[in-house]
Amino acid sequence: MRALIQRVTNSDVTVNGQKVAAIGPGMLVLLGVQKDDGEADAAYLAQKVSNLRIFEDQNGKMNLSIRDIGGELLVVSQFTLAGDTSRGNRPGFETAEKPEKARRLYEYFVSCLRQTGIPTQTGIFQAEMKVSLLNDGPVTFLLERNSHEVLHGK
After folding, report:
1. CATH code that applies to domain 2-151
2. CB of 120 within 8 A of CB of 110?
3. Which residues contact 78 (CB under 8 A, 6 or more apart)?
4. 105: pLDDT confidence band, cut at 50, 70 and 90?
5. What are phi and psi of 119, to 5 degrees?
6. Known catalytic residue: 80?
7. Can you tell me the distance from the alpha carbon of 67 to that of 53, in angstroms, rounded to the nearest whole number?
8. So what's the pLDDT on residue 152?
9. Residue 151 has pLDDT above 60, yes or no
10. Is 78 a catalytic residue?
11. How much is the average pLDDT of 31-59?
């Protein structure tokens, strides 16, 4: 599972010309689900996102979490994060999870975040979305977790 985290001043999602989600200061989380991902991966990444200290304190150091600043989350499914660009010029998506399981894990990830009490909005799974953001910094991190790899020491 891959989560591309962007610290934002604001972000929103539009589907078919209609705004379906919008947040103020916080994080835009683009989530890609890969084969062999499971609930343990989703829970781990949700915990990591909710505690990641990427917001500046009074001394200008990245020392505050989204909870510390009272920020919001916007989670958008992004299957292209599972894309493999190591061969040729066209991405391959063999490692992307099938939509049914990916939706379940995406929704589980979102529910884990909501359980932390952080206001969390979402895009629409499998929809053609327009995502806008004002990246703050810019600050962007890629988080990855695959319990299959963790269990087998990869």
Report:
1. 3.50.80.10
2. yes
3. 4, 30, 31, 32
4. very high
5. -55, 125
6. yes
7. 9
8. 46
9. no
10. yes
11. 97
User: How many other CB atoms sit within 10 Å of the CB of residue 120?
Assistant: 26
Q: Identify the DSSP state of 79.
A: G
Task: Please say if 55 is a catalytic residue.
Answer: no
Residues in the chain, overall count:
154
Query: What pLDDT is recorded for position 146?
Result: 78
Q: What are phi and psi of 49, to 5 degrees?
A: -60, -45
Model pTM score:
0.92
Q: Where are the domains of the chain?
A: 2-151
Query: Looking at residue 29, what DSSP letter applies?
Result: E
Active-site residue, selected from the candidate residues 6, 34, 78, 120:
78
Q: Is the pLDDT assigned to residue 110 strictly greater than 60?
A: yes
Residue 149 is which amino acid?
E
Answer yes or no: is pLDDT of 141 > 90: yes
Active-site entry in 6, 34, 55, 79: 79
Residue range 88-101: average pLDDT? 94
Catalytic hit among 80, 93, 115, 126:
80
